[in-house]
Amino acid sequence: MQGELPFRATGLSVGLSVLIDADNANANLVEPLLKEIAKYGTANVKRIYGDWTRPQLSSWKDKLHKFVIQPIQQFSYTSGKNATDSALIIDAMDLLYTSNFDGFCIVSSDSDFTKLACRIRESGLFVYGFGEKKTPEPFQKACDKFTYTENLEELEEKEGQKSELSSTERKAQSSAKLKQNQKLVNFVKTAYDSITEEEGWASLGELGIQLNKLDSSFDSRNYGYKKLGGLIRAINIFEINTIPHEKNPAVKALYIKLKN
């Protein structure tokens, strides 16, 4: 699976600590955010940091009870100083030292958490970042996987526009546009070249992992596709072979090979 923890496939329980910067996160996206996090493991800790005396955070209050997120109060003692960030970082380090977690999810578009992400990874744990596309690149690169929160939004207007075109027309337009994106095509080819096996075949799952190693913010949804397989088919530079799993024929493994 694209962006998935490597040891998830072993069936072991993956414990995650979710830390949210309320000043830099959208309360309306909390439900899709937690669904996304559930792909990577179980959120054993869910904390959100902010000055809850401020009216700007009122939109979060109903969400806290519904999704069982623990609010951490941090007063802004000095104007211009972000005490919330400091509180989140201190708690993250305390949680790190407990050795009870396999990874951390940091929800913020603030570059102040770049060093924190680096420190957690130095300890051998995974870091998943969630923030807007405007998030400074250093924080994105410091994470093992960075997901744009815009991809979590349900864009009803765009869905309505898509319905005006037939499925065939949409696929044709999308494929033609992606083929012209030489940067994307070269990026996918680079990842493919580094994992290709005998006779040029490579696992789609391995490709997804390699793409995220090269760019932590890579996501097929950035290009309008929910799954990596859909994006690869649209680029249309690979042969695709579907092979049933040896022990479970109902599970299909996808393999790709660069077309001649």
TrEMBL record:
InterPro entries: LOTUS-like, NYN, OST-HTH/LOTUS_dom
Stored Pfam families: NYN, OST-HTH
Annotated GO MF terms: RNA nuclease activity
HTH OST-type domain: residues covered: 180-255
Superkingdom per UniProt: Bacteria
Name of protein: NYN domain-containing protein
Species, as recorded: Scytonema millei VB511283
